[in-house]
Backbone:
């Protein structure tokens, strides 16, 4: 039984898009530029393309077991114990994802706007909102995601368009960046930046069937790839690859360069609102998906009693890194570079096992309809 | 005598005996008193004896002490005993004298058969036989006159309502420049007539429901059968019938009993004093609820856009209507966020203010001893005081209070260095923006929400305001108005409506709001101005030569 509610295609697209695309507001852009230089803008398209391939593999798996979510499929294919272990790993990963994103956000907001405010104050207020959204459930989060996506698109478009006069597209040269090999390597590795698409497979019962699942996945990946690429093009055109690798937040720096006249300059305020709201929704989605996956793994009907314990765990995860360097080079490296091994390769392996053992789901009439 | 005189002189400086004054107290409630009322609520049939019925009326209305109830005993032509009972002040005495008493006492037909009284003798336009005691009581309470003839097991209830009521007046809270100038009054019947006057449709249906156990008020639900989704009607009736309370006086109290999210700061029903607004919503497939006693109707289900629409919009051309709506939406954001953003910028994000403006603000604030949060709260409080005083103060003094407000809150506070001039501009803009919100409840809700944003902005800057926005959104997306998501302008996605935030030309508004699932979605064909497809009788082709 699905007690998470149902929502339409637009909300489904919004949930996944906002989670994937929000990382352009964080350290992601400068890290990518640091890795591949001026090739960053199409390296991200390569990552997106790789993710689309993995998503289609995931689609084949979901199609084989209609009406089942990913956790149920794990248990059907690999057995109860291994299935539950995989589900538990997924839940753990999303909790780590939410905690790491939370800390990254706090470190950045402290660096840019609130140098004297205590980390714990941000942590507690942020977690309270996350708890509220998760308490209200997936349907609520989906609807807020839709509004947030609109805010995000308006905010980012404004910043990028107004910053265009500062861009010099000659800075995109040399087009091959640090070399094709490096671009290909990081392009494949950074496909993990798009692996939040797996969330769709975990909440498939709320998204009105496989057709919506496929459309939402492809559109989300498409939008995310396009937005990331465009923002990287403009970022590189403004800061070049050497300076671009040193900023903490690319978008924040872009918003700071805006200058039209004395009363129309430095639009960090637009960035701040977009950034905070998007981060709140992203962390909430990660947090909710973690609890939801845990509940699905261990057949827990109501997720609400788990909110407080999980929020405490997220608090611990967020406090664990020593400083921003550790977050960027450890936490974010795991989340944005290596998480694909869990989120992409495990479902692929499960699909292979399902093929070998010839396991498939049963289509009932309701699902056919 | 001498002693008394001496005593009187010494009274101011001597001790007095404390008089033994007994003080009043309210004794414990006698719970048995409730039982007599319960008897009245039971469905007891009317007795066949005049004495029993006289006793019943006298007991029910506390005849000995209650001077409102009038019982007039008389005899018919055939010498049979009869009486009428009514509440003084609630009836039109001319109707009783000329069309009930006179025919009954003088008409010889009563000699033949008393049954003909109902059909032939009583001359009031409405009359009905009642056999249940509590119905008779309710009839008398609503201003009708009960007639009883000895030996009968029924009363004849004659329509004699004639209490004082206010005439139809101009709208006071929802005034418009271009549009109807009629508003509801306190009288239920008048209000329904005002709606019926606009919608001349035989499917316009009015149902009456009783609300409040003690005051037994009437409320009317009005809808257009064949257009409204019947589920909405059922749900409204279910909610109203499910209210168990002693007193409901008007729509303000009723809406609190029936709305979906009573804990929400933002209302989920629309309250209006304008019959034309009610009529336009009814035609869209919504339902109006009017309770006797207040000149307001409730409209359900609604979405947030209904709270931002002024009745004037539909009377204006679409360009003007759209402009006004955009202004109102901007005003909504200003009224909610402006003071919060100001305090956040001046406290935490000074680097975002252009240098010249920053210097101007800093110079203005130089002599102010308070932090910005105190300044803002002080000004907000003063502003609310003026607003509240303006409502309570009699009309003639209204202007005076305005002048005092301007002097005290504006000029004097700035000159006394209590607040900075920039803040006056911020608060004044916020106040004006708040007044542009058409719905009173909504604008009051926005005032409360603004306070939250001020506090969040003061303690956490833009971060706090963003948190506030997400929290507010999370509540808004959950809210429903009789099954319709409150934010259904955007989510969940419904079929495109052409009269939401952007007002399309009236001839392009082809569909009724999809979110209320009306039985007829289309309100006009694709080409509603059919004349554009026809040739005028006197027409010419541009190629024609002048004759």
Residues:
């Amino acid at each position: 039984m699905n007690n998470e509610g149902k929502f339409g295609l637009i909300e489904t697209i919004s949930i996944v898009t906002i989670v994937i695309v929000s990382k352009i507001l964080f350290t992601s852009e400068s890290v990518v530029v640091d890795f591949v230089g001026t090739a960053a803008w199409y390296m991200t398209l390569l990552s997106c393309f790789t993710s689309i391939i993995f998503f289609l593999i995931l689609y084949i798996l979901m199609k084989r077991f209609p009406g089942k979510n990913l956790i149920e499929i794990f248990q059907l294919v690999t057995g109860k114990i291994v299935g539950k272990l995989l589900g538990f790993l997924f839940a753990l990963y999303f909790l780590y994802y939410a905690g790491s994103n939370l800390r990254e956000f706090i470190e950045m907001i402290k660096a840019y706007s609130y140098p004297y405010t205590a980390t714990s104050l941000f942590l507690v207020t942020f977690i309270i909102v996350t708890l509220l959204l998760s308490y209200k459930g997936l349907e609520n989060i989906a609807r807020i995601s839709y509004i947030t996506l609109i805010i995000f698109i308006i905010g980012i478009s404004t910043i990028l368009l107004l910053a265009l006069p500062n861009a010099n597209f000659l800075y995109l040269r040399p087009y091959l960046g640090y070399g094709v090999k490096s671009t290909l390597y990081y392009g494949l590795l950074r496909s993990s930046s798009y692996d939040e698409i797996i969330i769709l497979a975990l909440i498939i019962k709320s998204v009105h069937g496989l057709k919506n699942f496929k459309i939402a996945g492809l559109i989300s990946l498409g939008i995310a790839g396009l937005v990331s690429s465009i923002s990287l093009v403009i970022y590189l055109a403004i800061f070049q690859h050497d300076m671009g690798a040193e900023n903490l937040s690319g978008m924040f720096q872009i918003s700071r360069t805006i200058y039209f006249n004395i009363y129309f300059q430095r639009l960090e305020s637009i960035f701040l609102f977009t950034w905070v709201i998007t981060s709140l929704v992203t962390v909430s989605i990660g947090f909710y998906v973690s609890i939801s996956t845990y509940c699905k793994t261990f057949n827990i009907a109501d997720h609400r009693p788990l909110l407080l314990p999980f929020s405490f765990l997220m608090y611990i995860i967020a406090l664990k890194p020593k400083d921003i360097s550790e977050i960027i080079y450890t936490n974010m490296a795991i989340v944005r570079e290596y998480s694909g091994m869990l989120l992409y390769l495990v479902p692929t392996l499960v699909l292979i096992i399902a093929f070998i053992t010839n396991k498939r789901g049963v289509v009932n009439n309701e699902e056919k309809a | 005598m001498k002693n008394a005189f001496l005593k009187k002189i010494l009274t101011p400086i001597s001790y007095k005996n404390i008089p033994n004054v007994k003080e009043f107290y309210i004794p414990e409630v006698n719970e048995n008193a409730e039982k007599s009322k319960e008897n009245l609520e039971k469905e007891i049939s009317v007795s066949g004896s005049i004495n029993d019925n006289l006793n019943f009326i006298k007991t029910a209305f506390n005849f000995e002490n209650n001077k409102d109830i009038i019982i007039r005993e008389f005899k018919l032509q055939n010498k049979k005993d009869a009486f009428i009972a009514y509440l003084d002040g609630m009836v039109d005495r001319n109707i009783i004298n000329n069309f009930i008493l006179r025919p009954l006492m003088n008409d010889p037909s009563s000699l033949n058969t008393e049954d003909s009284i109902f059909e032939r003798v009583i001359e009031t336009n409405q009359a009905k036989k009642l056999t249940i005691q509590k119905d008779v009581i309710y009839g008398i309470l609503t201003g009708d006159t009960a007639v009883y003839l000895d030996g009968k097991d029924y009363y004849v209830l004659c329509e004699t309502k004639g209490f004082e009521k206010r005439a139809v007046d101009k709208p006071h809270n929802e005034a418009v420049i271009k549009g109807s100038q009629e508003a509801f009054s306190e009288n239920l019947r008048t209000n329904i007539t005002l709606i019926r006057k606009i919608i001349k449709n035989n499917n316009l249906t009015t149902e009456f429901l009783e609300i409040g156990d003690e005051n037994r008020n009437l409320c009317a639900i009005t809808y257009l059968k064949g257009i409204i989704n019947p589920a909405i009607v059922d749900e409204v009736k279910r909610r109203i019938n499910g209210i168990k309370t002693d007193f409901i006086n008007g729509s303000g109290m009723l809406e609190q009993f029936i709305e979906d999210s009573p804990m929400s700061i933002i209302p989920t029903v629309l309250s209006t004093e304008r019959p034309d607004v009610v009529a336009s919503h009814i035609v869209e497939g919504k339902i109006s609820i009017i309770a006797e006693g207040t000149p307001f109707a409730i409209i359900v289900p609604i979405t947030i856009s209904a709270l931002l629409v002024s009745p004037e919009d539909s009377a204006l051309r679409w360009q003007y209507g759209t402009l006004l709506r955009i202004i109102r939406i901007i005003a909504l954001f200003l009224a909610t966020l402006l003071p919060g953003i100001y305090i956040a910028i001046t406290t935490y994000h000074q680097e975002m203010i252009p240098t010249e403006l920053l210097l101007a603000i800093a110079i203005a604030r130089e002599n102010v001893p308070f932090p910005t949060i105190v300044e803002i709260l002080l000004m907000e409080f003063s502003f609310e005081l003026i607003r509240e005083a303006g409502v309570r103060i009699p009309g003639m003094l209204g202007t005076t209070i305005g002048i005092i407000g301007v002097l005290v809150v504006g000029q004097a506070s700035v000159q006394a260095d209590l607040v900075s001039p920039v803040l006056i501009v911020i608060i004044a803009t916020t106040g004006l923006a708040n007044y542009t919100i058409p719905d009173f409840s909504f604008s009051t809700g926005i005032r409360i929400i603004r306070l939250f944003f001020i506090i969040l902005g003061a303690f956490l800057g833009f971060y706090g305001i963003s948190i506030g926005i997400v929290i507010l959104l999370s509540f808004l997306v959950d809210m429903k108005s009789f099954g319709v998501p409150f934010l259904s302008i955007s989510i969940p996605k419904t079929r495109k409506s052409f009269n939401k935030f952007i007002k399309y030309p009236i001839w392009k508004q082809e569909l009724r709001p999809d979110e209320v699932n009306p039985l007829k979605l289309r309100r006009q064909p694709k080409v509603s101005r059919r004349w554009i497809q026809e040739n005028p009788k006197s027409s010419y082709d541009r190629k024609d030569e002048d004759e």
Notes: The domain at 9-357 of chain A is CATH 1.20.1740.10 (Amino acid/polyamine transporter I). The two ends of chain A are 17 Å apart (CA to CA). Residues 77 and 357 of chain A are 8 Å apart (CA to CA).
